[in-house]
């Protein structure tokens, strides 16, 4: 009898510990996603009764030019944010050197991570200003006229993405610094005995041990690129003429400014489906690594 009670307690303890997190996940994530999809099948202004429209919101998305602009901008965000892991790794390798002044350099590279996104957006609005910004001073130094990148429908998305890339690189740097501090010194010592130096040491000894960290940095950068919203609101508000809008910001505009919560929910559902591709890929990769370990 006593053994049975101990066995039940042993089985119940993990379930009780997982229950709060599982309940929160079901309510905040699963229920919210299902509710959003349900709203996307209706026409709703957010206040009155919902009117069933079926897949009309999704059909309207297909013919909406702004949707395709937003989707293209999300692709640009993804492409640029792929630079964050290798840039973070390069900076981490630099500041991980045992040099006296590297502590100061490390704190300077770490600074963007502790700044709020609003602060980063304001800083880069000043940086891009064609009258007195740092970019204008650089162009004037070479005798050229500075471009108004935040007013250009061609360059505004790239300007905003590179502003958001700054703290993302700092985040990846922190991940790789943590990974560098857990490297196996015995393997590194064996590599030095075999005359592994420079690029050979990095490629054959260091990078294989950072594979998991690199995978996490890549996955988080992709998801961060897809859900970016606040820095667009600060720097451009989606302008000029919607050219810097992505799916998250268009969802915000359609829902809260146009009172089209059904259409905004359809945008949210499409964005969630795109993010699920990366989330499922991430989970499958984790399961495969655990099975092979």
What does this molecule look like?
The chain is mostly helical and 293 residues long. It has one domain (65-292): Orthogonal Bundle (MetI-like fold). 74% of the residues lie in helices and 1% in strands. The chain has 14 helices and 2 strands; from the N terminus they run αββααααααααααααα. The chain has a two-stranded antiparallel sheet. β1 (42-43) and β2 (51-52) form a beta hairpin. α4 (84-95) packs across α8 (156-180), α6 (117-128) crosses α8 (156-180) and α13 (247-256) packs antiparallel against α14. The model has no long low-confidence stretch (mean pLDDT 88).
List the helices and strands and how they pair.
Blueprint lengths: L1 H39 L1 E2 L7 E2 L3 H7 L2 H17 L2 H12 L6 H13 L2 H12 L5 H8 L14 H25 L4 H9 L4 H12 L1 H16 L3 H6 L11 H10 L4 H32 L1
Antiparallel strand pairs: 1-2
Helix pairs in contact: 1-14, 2-14, 3-8, 3-11, 4-5, 4-8, 5-8, 6-8, 8-11, 11-14, 13-14
Membrane topology: Multi-pass membrane protein
Subcellular location: Cell membrane
Protein name: ABC transporter permease subunit
> What is the fold-level CATH name, i.e. the topology?
MetI-like fold
Largest sheet: spatial strand order: 1-2
Our Rg estimate from Cα atoms comes to 24 Å
Using the alpha-carbon principal axes, give the shape: flat
Number of helices: 14
The main sheet comes to:
2 strands, antiparallel
In percent terms, what proportion of residues is strand? under 5%
H and E order: HEEHHHHHHHHHHHHH
Number of strands: 2
Task: Give the helix proportion (percent range).
Answer: over 70%
Count of discrete structural domains:
1
Q: Pairing-aware structural class of the strands and helices?
A: mainly alpha
């Amino acid at each position: 009898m006593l053994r049975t009670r101990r066995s039940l307690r042993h089985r119940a303890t993990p379930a009780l510990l997982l229950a709060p997190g599982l309940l929160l996940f079901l309510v905040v994530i699963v229920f919210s996603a299902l509710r959003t999809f349900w709203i996307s099948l209706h026409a709703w202004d957010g206040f009155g009764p919902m009117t069933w429209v079926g897949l009309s919101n999704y059909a309207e998305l297909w013919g909406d030019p702004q949707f395709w602009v937003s989707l293209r901008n999300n692709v640009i965000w993804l492409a640029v944010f792929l630079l964050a892991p290798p840039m973070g790794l390069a900076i981490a390798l630099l500041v991980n050197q045992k040099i006296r002044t590297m502590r100061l350099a490390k704190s300077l590279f770490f600074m963007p991570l502790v700044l709020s996104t609003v602060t980063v957006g304001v800083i880069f609005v000043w940086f891009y200003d064609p009258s007195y910004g740092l970019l204008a001073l650089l162009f004037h130094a070479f005798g050229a006229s500075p471009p108004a990148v935040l007013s250009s429908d061609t360059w505004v998305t790239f300007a905003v993405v590179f502003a958001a890339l700054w703290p993302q690189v700092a985040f990846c740097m922190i991940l790789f610094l943590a990974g560098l501090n857990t490297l196996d010194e015995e393997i590194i010592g064996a590599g030095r005995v075999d005359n592994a130096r420079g690029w050979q040491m990095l490629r054959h000894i260091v990078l294989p041990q950072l594979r998991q960290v690199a995978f996490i940095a890549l996955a988080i950068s992709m998801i961060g690129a897809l859900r970016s919203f606040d820095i667009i609101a600060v720097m451009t508000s989606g302008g000029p003429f919607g050219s810097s809008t992505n799916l998250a910001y268009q969802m915000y505009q359609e829902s809260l400014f146009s009172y089209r919560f059904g259409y905004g929910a359809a945008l949210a559902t499409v964005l969630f489906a795109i993010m699920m591709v990366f989330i499922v890929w991430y989970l499958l990769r984790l399961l495969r690594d655990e099975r092979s370990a």
